[in-house]
Fold this protein.
Amino acid sequence: MRKTFTFYRLLSLALLLTSVTAWGQKKILIKHADEGKYVSGKIAPEEKNTLIGNVRFEHDGALMDCDSAWLFSATNTLKAFGNVKINQGDTLFVYGDKLDYNGNTKLAIMRKNVRLIDDSVQLFTEVLNFDRESNKAFYTVGGKIIDDETTLISREGVYFSKTKWYHFRGDVVVTNPEYIIESDTLHYQTERKVALFKGPSTIVGDSSDIYCENGFYNTVTNIAQFEKNAIVRDKNTFITGDSIYYEQNRGFGQAFENVVIYDTIEHYTIRGAFGEYLRDPEYAFVTGYPTYAMLIEDDSLYIYGDTLYSRKVDSLDKKVVNIWPRVKFFKSDLQGKCDSLVYQDLDSSIYMFRDPVVWDDSTQITGKHIIITLRNGTLDSLKVYEDAFVIAIEDYDFFHQVKGRDMFGKFVNDNLKRILVVGNGQTLYVIREDEDSDNPPYVGVSRGECSEILIVFDENGDIDQMTYIKQAETKTYPMSDVTKELSKLEGFYPRFNERPASKEEIYPKDRPKKE
């Protein structure tokens, strides 16, 4: 045995003296072994050194340790077995049960119970290819990475040790006490703790979920930027947009282009080109031709304004929505227009300001201020304050008219059923001939004055009854005596041409058309 080991030491010395090949490639050097044996090519198919016990190699700045190994000097390769360890010469270490290493290409293939450690990050897999030339390690048989409290698994992975970037692909799952990430393709930077998403990805937290197909997420600050079909769920609110910036800790987000904010409990939807959202205190700010849609019975009310601001204002968790200017709204049986509008959860009322007008079937209602109140998700009442005026179409040559100081209306089954006029009431009613008569369709016009007047509408929205509650003064004029002045009450101003006929018509004409 002494002769064998002496020969081995002489051989090691020879290898040290010839550590660089004729092609400039550094040879693998034997640094230590408890025992060694050289087998020539005459005895075995390949010339090799068999080394046993505390074996250590050195190659181009890297140290490799193992229990036993075969060194093939002719090809500058080795096979290592048992407790294999590669020390790259910096913070990177690779461990495993078996190693194939090529000194010419500097490619190491570690097998079984493989573990790569770089600073605080650990990678576990069964087969790891480590290219020392490019400082790149990769696996294709599944792997797991542990970084402090974060665990990541994937089917395939690549690690770039110089830049500290991991590239993962296939069934990627990141688990942390605060979130779980699932992705098709994900890149992760271990120093900055930043994840990049390159395919369909989800982030699930305690109070929020995120979906995107492209973007980044800082796992330390919980700040993210998402693109391509991005969706953020914060409690009961969903936010979507072409691009979303989101701060998870604050519950703050900004969305850009094709923005949608949807509340699953209150069943409202906000749309626009730019949106801003905060969880607590809750608010949403939307511009870029925004709309606010709310469910009323089995129908939806769509409200447009150039700017929309929604916020929670009290301990009762009630919301106030401000929309201004150029406001229009559309519901299949109710439309309106004003300069500014406020919707309050507290009393479920819509407040209309600055030149408001409401259309219901063939009726137009105007005043200085108009309030529409909902109850249990249906239209309930209407209040018109100062200069209240009702115009009902008989045909487009004649109009029924009622005016007064204030008006109070009641809806039944979402249709305006009656209106009470209070203060300074005036009426103009067009009298129609009996349907069976051969005479002209209109007999004349009846005008009246009364401090309180009750108007009742039929199921078609036409005036069915008009009742003077207190002492009234009335006068009827035959059609032959009806002048242009007699056919109109002071302040008569029909605005039916401004009425939106569909939800698309609530938008201004300068709105860009979608391609």
Q: What stands out?
A: The two ends are 85 Å apart (CA to CA).
